[in-house]
C-alpha cells in the first residue's frame, strides 16, 4: 500500500483545488486506518492536515467516503421557490425596473435582498435587460382579418407563393439618428463640441422608393419624387406592375400583392385592376401585416448596406444611386429564401391568433 500511495502522492503533489473525489477520500481513510497519523497521512498523500482530519471525521461519523459537501461559499439567498416568485413578478410587469422588482419581492419576505442579488438572480434565471421589439399595434378587428387571411392560405405551399409578386414603398434618410450613442463626460462638459451629436430636421431629407419582386426575380425599384398619390401610383402600376406581371406570369396565374394604403385603394386604381383582371389577380391583403410581406426584409437589407458603406452619401442624388445599386445586387438566394418562409409566416399568424409574430 505504501508503494502505491507514494506513487499516487506524486500525482497530487501540486495541490488539490475544490473538494476531493471519492477515490481520494478513500485513500485518506485507508491511510488513517493503516495507523498513520494525521501529519503522516498529509505528508504521504499531499493534502493538508485539515483535509485529512475532516475527511476521516466524516467517515467515522457517517461511515461514508462520498463527499457530503454539495457546494462551497455563501448560501444563495433566493432559492428555487424565490426564483419562481421573482419569475411571476417579471411576467406580471415586464417593464419593471430593478428597484421595483426588488421592492415587490421583499414584500412579505422574512429575509430581504438587495438590488445586486436581484440582478444576479435574474441573470441566473436567464432574464436580461433588452430593448423591446417594435411591432405595429393591431386592433381587434384587424386581428380577426389577419387570422382569416392566414386560415385562407394555410394550405398554400412554396410553389403557390412563387406565383405572388410582392410590392411596397419605403423611405431612406440621408442621415440617421442613433439614440443608442453614449459618451463619457464630466458634469461641466455637456456643451463641449466633442460631446455633442448634431441633428438635422427630418434627417436631412430622404429618398422614397417603390419596389416589387417575386421568387423568380427582383422587379423594378422606382424612385418617387414627391408624395405618392393615386395618380403617381397609377403610373407605377401601368408602367411597371403590368409589364412585370405579364412577363413573369404569361399564363395569367400570378398574384399581385399591395398593402392597404389609401393611394392603393383609390377608385382609379381599383378600376385599372378590374380592366386587367384577366391577366393577373390582386391578392386580397390583410391590414397591419408587414410581418407577412417579405419585401420588408429587403428594405432591411438595403438599410444595412447603406450604413455599411465606406463612403456615405452626402446628398440625395448619391443616396438614390446607392439605393438602386444595393437593390440590383441583392442575391437571388436572399429573396427566394424570403418567399420560401411564407408557409411559416402563415403558421405564425395562426399560432398568434392574428397577433404579432417574430417576422
UniProtKB/TrEMBL annotation:
InterPro entries: Homeodomain-like_sf, RNaseH_sf, Tc1-like_DDE_dom, Transposase_5, Transposase_Tc1-like, WH-like_DNA-bd_sf. GO terms for molecular function: DNA binding. Residues 165-308 form the Tc1-like transposase DDE domain. It holds the Pfam family DDE_3. One of its GO terms (biological process) is DNA transposition. It comes from the Eukaryota. Residues 84-155 form the Transposase Tc1-like domain. PANTHER family: SI:DKEY-77F5.3, TRANSPOSABLE ELEMENT-RELATED. This is Transposase Tc1-like domain-containing protein. It comes from Paramormyrops kingsleyae.
